[in-house]
Design goal:
The protein is of the alpha/beta class and 425 residues long. The protein has two domains: 273 residues, 3-Layer(aba) Sandwich (Rossmann fold); 124 residues, no CATH class. It is 43% helix and 14% strand. The strands form three sheets. Strands 4-1-5-6-13-12-11-8-9 form a nine-stranded mixed beta sheet, with helices on both faces. A two-stranded antiparallel sheet has the order 2-3. Strand 2 and strand 3 form a beta hairpin. The longest helix has 34 residues. InterPro entries: Class_I_gatase-like, Peptidase_C26, PuuD-like. One of its GO terms (cellular component) is cytosol.
């Protein structure tokens, strides 16, 4: 039994992260992400990080949303050729300090960049958390800091300097951000601002971040050192209509009270809530676009009428094309098609006027029947007469026959609907 598409929850793709456990690779996705997606009414579909999966993404269709989060540094070859003018010593220092993050995973890069570009092409809802926000920026032509500490923080004052990653306090670490007015983040956290400010404390766990923001995006928040902590595409943000393209550098899903699932702020889960809302709306749009209405079944009277009209115009077509097959034709058969065209009200006035002219031309076929007296020898004369018609006249006739096939079913359907409505009232 086929499933009812109207009750199937939207599918949100999430790419897993690979790690080593007991000397074997293990794929995982944090439960905070999965729980929020499920709680707000979508189904998380985990895309495993295995070789070659980036070539099989079509098998995960339909895709109603993509959530990307967690993972190693993105291969810098995807966004800049030089290593940000960092010395070899500095690069080695970064690798030593961030061992688990600097081990680039090219397969994961390929999977996630392909998904991000797919979302951008089709306007599929996309939420990027931490690495997912960086993937989104890179997919649109933006760049990243190779290391925030080496490239950004060293150029700011002591007061502005921020710690964006605390290995000893993963969930508990917080730093302030300033939210930009009139952005989604502003709407979600507005009730939590104090003393007339626009600051909240957020959890972060990253050593890279947005350097040059892609042109299509608008910043939503900044850290004191100037790092962009959130951005979105204002032209692709309307969850009610299935539009949502956003990246958050911080982790709202981990901003919870100690030993509790209670969030630091009421606005923390809103990114997931609105993202799923957009996925639901996007799914409805896809279903509406792919649902094909059932063909209309005519009653006996309408079907008989349709056959008469089709036969009438078929006879007229044969007369115009071949000049034969007219021995058993009477005037009423020809008039049926012309009268149908003249009675049609589904077309524009210009189309009606043109088809009436063609209908008159069809009716003139009866004049040929009378003149030729249905004699076999006169068929040749009929062919000769049509041979003398101008190209414009012949093209008009051909255009008429082609148009009829299209409009006949359309008009009959309109009339049938009118008949059904009349019978039910």
């Amino acid at each position: 039994m086929a499933a009812d598409l109207s009750v199937i929850l939207p599918r949100v793709l999430i790419v897993s992260r690979r790690c080593v456990r007991k000397n074997k690779f293990v794929d995982f996705v944090g439960e905070y992400h999965l729980n929020l997606i499920v709680n707000y009414g979508a189904v998380p579909v985990i895309v495993p990080r295995v070789p070659g999966i980036h070539m099989l993404l079509e098998s995960f269709e339909p895709i109603h949303g993509v959530l990307l989060c967690e993972g190693e540094d993105i291969d810098p070859s995807h966004y800049e050729s030089e290593m940000a003018n960092l010395s070899s010593e500095e690069l080695e220092e970064i690798r030593s300090l961030h061992v688990s993050d600097t081990a680039i995973d090219k397969e994961k890069d390929a999977i996630e960049l392909r998904l991000a570009k797919l979302c951008l092409e089709r306007n599929i809802p996309y939420l990027g958390i931490c690495r997912g926000s960086q993937i989104l920026n890179v997919a649109c032509g933006g760049t990243l800091y190779q290391d925030v500490g080496k490239e950004l923080t060293r150029n700011v004052t002591e007061k502005q300097r921020m710690v964006h990653m605390d290995y000893n306090n993963y969930d508990g670490h917080r730093h302030p951000i300033t939210v930009v007015e009139d952005t989604p983040l502003d709407q979600w956290f507005s009730d939590s601002f104090v003393d007339g400010g626009r600051e909240v404390l957020v959890n972060s766990y990253h050593h890279q971040g947005v350097k040059k923001l892609a042109p299509r995006f608008v910043p939503m928040a900044f850290a004191p050192d100037g790092l962009i902590e959130g951005f979105y595409d204002p032209d692709a943000y309307n969850p009610e209509e299935g539009k949502f393209i956003m990246g958050l550098q911080f982790h709202p899903e981990r901003m919870r009270q100690p030993d509790s699932d209670e969030f630091d702020y009421p606005g923390c889960p809103f990114a997931y809530k609105e993202f799923v809302r957009a996925a639901v709306a996007y799914q409805k749009r896809l279903i509406s676009a792919t649902c094909v209405p059932k063909s209309l079944k005519l009653n006996k009277e309408m079907e008989k009428r349709r056959r008469t009209i089709v036969k009438s115009l078929s006879v007229a077509r044969n007369m115009s094309r071949y000049g034969h097959g007219t021995k058993s034709v009477n005037e009423s058969e020809i008039k049926a098609g012309a009268e149908f065209l003249e009675a049609n009200t589904a077309l524009s006035p210009q189309q009606e006027a043109r088809l009436k002219q063609m209908g008159a031309t069809v009716r003139n076929g009866s004049f040929y029947l009378e003149r030729l007296n249905l004699r076999e020898e006169k068929e040749k004369l009929a062919r000769n007469l049509m041979g003398k018609m101008s190209m414009e006249q012949l093209l008009d006739l051909l255009s008429f026959y082609r148009t009829m096939g299209k409009i006949c079913s359309e008009v009959l359907e309109i009339k049938q609907h009118g008949l059904v409505s009349h019978q039910t009232t």
